[in-house]
Amino acid sequence: MGLAAYTQDLGQKSYSLDECISIALENNLNLQSVNLRANSAKVNHQQSKANMLPSINGNFNIGVNDGRSIDPFTNDFINQELTFSNMGLSLDMTIFNGFRLLNEAKQNRLNREASELEKEAEQQDLVLNVTLAYLQVLNSKAVLDLTKQRYEATKQQLKIQEDFYKNESGNPADYADILGQIASDETSILVSESNLNNARLSLVRLLNIPHNITIDVESTLLDFEKYSLSADEVYTQSLQNLATFKANELRIKAAEKGISIAKSQFTPEVSVFAGINTNYSSAAELFNSTGTDIVDTGDFVTINGQDLPVMTEETSFESQSISYQDQLDNNLNTVLGIEVRVPLFNGFRAKNNVALEKIRVEESILELERTHLDIKNAIAQVHFDMEAVYNRYQSLLKQVEAYEESYRINEVRFNNGISNFLNYVTSKNNLDNAKVNLANAKYEYLLRVRVLDYYRGKTL
Q1: Residues 346-364: pLDDT tens digits?
Q2: In whole angstroms, what is the distance from residue 61 CA to residue 279 CA?
Q3: Maximum distance among all alpha carbons in the chain?
Q4: Domain that holds residue 101
């Protein structure tokens, strides 16, 4: 499905998490770049296998030469205009070069497999980021709903105090304080709406859809259970399931093949070659006998004092051009040979290339170790934060319950003129803030659970 179809539909209904993930996997530009790199690795692998096949090439030329030149048919010097043509077919094949071609094919196969895994890792990262952005939208919506509920409750209280104010009963300052609280609640709604808009924009950027489209999410029911796995258990599962580890391991093996490729520069290279060639020249001619004639040689002999001319019999010839096809057939020649190239000295290039490839292996190993350390530390931090948020959520549940009772009592007392507005609004703000904190804690916990599930390789 293209962007146009998404543009048409996005503003018309809420989208589930699975639908957002599907859109992101199709449209995300970073993922498309990784796909292109994987495709390039595939082509490189195919080419490295094809490099082990013979190289066969044909050649053909035709031209006109004017002036002094060598007749390609007779190899004589001539001074005339002639048309020439050459045709050939050549074959070259490497028999042995220190297994360089074979190791290059193996290295590119490993790089291809690593690229595929890196594409999978990028997909996993994208799914995680979309999931976190989706949850952030849900969190922002929940907070906005709470601020609107707070505003509605304050409006109801404003109506009560307005009646008191008009009847000149109660404390006039309470009515002014309620108006101030209304303004505060309206500000909270504006802030919450801005946060929701920013969360939606973050999700839209991941989906790579136009920013002028309003995307909404489904308020799905999210389970809230205590996470059962320890940080070490999550890390152990990540070693088996995360594509980034497997990709780094393949990069190490590919780098090791690079050492073997570099070492092949120390070994002789043996190759065979063969060819078939022919040529044509417009100056080439055949001379056919047309008979004999008695001709005067210009010499004479004296017999009995009389000079007699010397005659000789001379064969007459007629020139005939040789056809293009006949010349190609007549001038056909073949060549077959074997070539051995022995490296004697190349400015220590081979030695230094081997040293560089060994460094690349060490860099690949360090990259894998760095990945292990980074992910292990990240898991430990996320797991610690997750447990802290869970405990905070449990405390906030109790706090909300206590503030609900406090607010109920203070609202009744305030409406009956027993308590002042300060006690009422303090109780109300405490409850509203506790509910917002509870909602934030819930989604913070769910976000961290999703991150831990991602490290486990679990489908989000």
Answers
A1: 889 999 999 999 999 999 9
A2: 9
A3: 178
A4: 3-53+97-267+343-455
